[in-house]
Amino acid sequence: MDLRWQEEQRAFQARVLIDDDPDLALRPYRTFVGTARVVDDRRSSRTERILLTIILGAVVVSLLMAFGLAREFAALTASVTGGIALMMAVSPTPPAQRAAGWTPLLAVYRSSVLRGEAPICVTQISLDEFERLGTEGFGTVVGRPRPGSTFGLFVDDHLVWPRTPPRDAIPTDPGFGAS
Predict the structure, then answer these.
(1) Number of Cα atoms under 13 Å in the Cβ half of residue 31
(2) pLDDT band at 56 (very low <50, low <70, confident <90, very high)
(3) What distance lies between CA 108 and its chain's CA centroid?
(4) How far is the C-alpha of 124 from the C-alpha of 103, rounded, in Å?
(5) Per the confidence metrics, is the pTM higher than 0.70?
(6) CA pair distance 29, 26, nearest whole angstrom
(7) Residue 55's pLDDT band (boundaries 50, 70, 90)?
(8) For the residues of 114-132, what is the DSSP string, one character each?
(9) Three-state SS for 100?
(10) Strongest mean pLDDT among 15-19, 112-116, 137-141
(11) What residue ranges in the chain does DSSP mark as E strands?
């Protein structure tokens, strides 16, 4: 959790509650279940890391030999590289971090939206708010909904506040009006 964002959100909530004329806009929203944060699947495999270590070690040893440094330095560099590669080969790798897949989310769309259009931002909400808001509808937004921002959503007489910093839309997020 981003503590700085939490403090900004609390300060924003306090300003909204005492402001006589907040900046309001009617926007469509949609609730769904998914992940509140984007999971980065761009991890390198163990084999790729070992090969990279060996190749870099070979390049460094070749450069040491090409510049005429003592063979002892090259041998020491090669043995350290081999030791690092061996440690990488036998050490256990931590399992990939997976985000919780069942999180109630709120997607906020542009004020004029077409069917199937991706949301501006997505944020986590509470389970009570998830049930109260329904699948999709229109609400009055206070603030500017965008990734990393602070905002709130009025639906009827209920005010919904984001629980996590809003993130960009990902391809698995539902478009507006999609079933």
Answers:
(1) 23
(2) very high
(3) 17
(4) 7
(5) no
(6) 10
(7) very high
(8) -TTPPPSEEEE--HHHHHH
(9) coil
(10) 137-141
(11) 24-34, 103-108, 121-124, 136-143, 151-155, 158-160
